[in-house]
Amino acid sequence: MKIVIPGGTGQVGTILNRALSAAGHEVVVLTRRPAHEREVEWDGRTWGPWAEEIDGSDVVINLAGRSVSCRYTPANLRAMMDSRVHSTEIVGEAIAAAARPPGVWLQMSTATVYAHRFDAPNDEETGVIGGSEPDVPDYWSYSVEIARAWERAQEVADTPHTRKVALRSAMVMSPDPGGVFDVLLRLARLGLGGPVAGGGQYVSWIHDRDFVRAVEFLIERDDLRGPVNLAAPRPLPQRAFMRDLRSARGIPVGLPATRAMAELGAFALRTDTELLLKSRRVVPGRLLAEGFDFAYADWPEAAGDLVRRRRGDRDRAGAEGALVSGSS
């Protein structure tokens, strides 16, 4: 298959590109700064020659949007909104104009669309959409509105010959440097992997290999459309999540942090406390109902695999460095 991935140079795009290319598919990445073979320039806003890649493709997986790993200033929140909505609109226009439109359009979304809650899990059918929760920061509501506008841009696109799926993804955990797992592991190694603000808020996540398998599943199942939660079936409180991560890495202690300390830490990391404090209790109702089998349904096993792969990558990098040094 020919698979086009707008915005495919980030962590999730790299994971998909690597796996789908290894499976024998032709993968084309649309990016602002093409640097490798099969990368094509686009700006995520305007029409261009990149649209020719979509015409005749089999699958489009749109991942474009400004990273959420930043301070949630008004300017950054607006950039998140605009980059997601505009890129989705222009992808929809390219699909609508194609002489041979793709069979399926998978559109990245986010589990952040669901409410901050502790009482029950959010699936696609009964989950509570956020935005009106009491006692949460005002900008959390704007994050939900970004997610809703993102999905709405796909919904209204006039693409009658292309099946549309919105990927309400939890945090994708992979051993790649710079990803969310890498950041959490670094915090744990620094002794900062304890409960944050009590640690009762739920963490939803998905192992990178299950993420890829879920995407492949959704491509193959031509009867599935609309929002689909991409999350492991058993989210867990943050205190247990970090405890299991520390255990997998052999770190006995993680210092707890108050809300104020989390604010300072998030400021130092140039990110925002919503990523730490919002309770994302999201479950994959539709995937489970359709028979998808998670290879990593539980966090302790997933964390163990990710730590082993992270160590293996470092060992290989060290060995390669030694070979280069020895041959010079």
* DSSP, total strands: 11
Mean pLDDT: 91
SSE order = EHEEHEHEHEEHEEHEEHHHHH
Percent in strands: 5-15%
Give the quaternary arrangement of the chains.
single chain
CA radius of gyration is 20 Å
Broad structural category: alpha/beta
Shape: globular
Q: Give the uncertain stretches in residue-range form.
A: none
Give the termini separation. 42 Å
User: Major beta sheet, specifics?
Assistant: 7 strands, parallel
Question: How do the strands of the widest beta sheet line up side by side?
Answer: 3-2-1-4-5-6-10
In short, what is this structure?
The chain is of the alpha/beta class. It has 11 helices and 11 strands. Helix 3 (74-97) runs parallel beside helix 4 and helix 7 (238-249) crosses helix 11 (299-327).
Report what the structure shows.
The structure is a single chain. With 328 residues, this protein is an alpha/beta fold. 43% of the residues lie in helices and 14% in strands. The chain is built from eleven helices and eleven strands. Strands 3-2-1-4-5-6-10 form a seven-stranded parallel β-sheet, with helices on both faces. Strand 1, helix 1 and strand 2 form a beta-alpha-beta unit. Helix 5 crosses helix 7 (238-249) and helix 7 packs across helix 11 (299-327). It is globular and about 60 Å long. The mean pLDDT is 91.
